[in-house]
Write a structure and sequence with these properties.
This protein has 271 residues and is α/β, with parallel strands linked by helices. The protein contains ten helices and seven strands.
Amino acid sequence: MNTEKIWLVTDASAGLGVTLVKMLLDHGHKVAATSDDGDALLEAVGAKLEGRFLPLTVNLADERAVRRAVDATAAAFGGIDVVVNGAGQGVQGSLERLSDAQLRGTFDTHVFGVLNVIRAVMPRLRAQRGGHVFNISSILGFDGRAPEWGAYSAAKFAVSGLTESLAADAAPLGIRVSLVYPGAMRAGDAQASPELAARGEQGWDQGGDPVKAAQALIQAAEAQYAPLHLFLGRDSFDQARSKIQSVQQELARWREMSVSIGAVDGRRLAA
């Protein structure tokens, strides 16, 4: 049985992205990967894999460049099966101190870059009635209680919301969609991972293993039933559970006020 797939991995220059690319190639898949420096990406992968690896220099905020990259991938390999919209960098600072350019740049990278890829690739997946899209959010896109990371968190929350909507649109077409929430991830230095930097400020000095995270993504792609929500890392899992418990407690505490603004049901009053 041929299990080879064609993967497109964006923002694969470091960390989880480049680790995933290397692992996919080792497993015999064909991979196109984008970076803002294709030559550096080729050097980072460190392999001569003509016919199986396509490094692409792409600014994800440039819609035309993204469409050319998707077209080039399909032309080189004959299609696209799995898309991984990578994480990207984050800008640190309190919201009121970040400039307009910094805030818009964060959304250009994390939100509009993802949307550019989705718009370019979905017609192909729709036509073939199948495929799998992984959007990499962050645990900070599920729980925003991290000082100094408001812009990054807001952008990742947007990724989470658009991914849930995409999943609803794609399901009838046989296209699978997964939303990934990595926690702190080792990537050489804290600045490469906003989650790791945020954890460091709270006393954490270790991050998750990118190799194990890449393995998890591949396993999810091969699973019979793909997860819509995938939390990666014990810290991510625990923080998500804490957030859910906190929301449940507030729902219970403020239930009467929440439901009190609804229209009065005359039948219930009569009863």
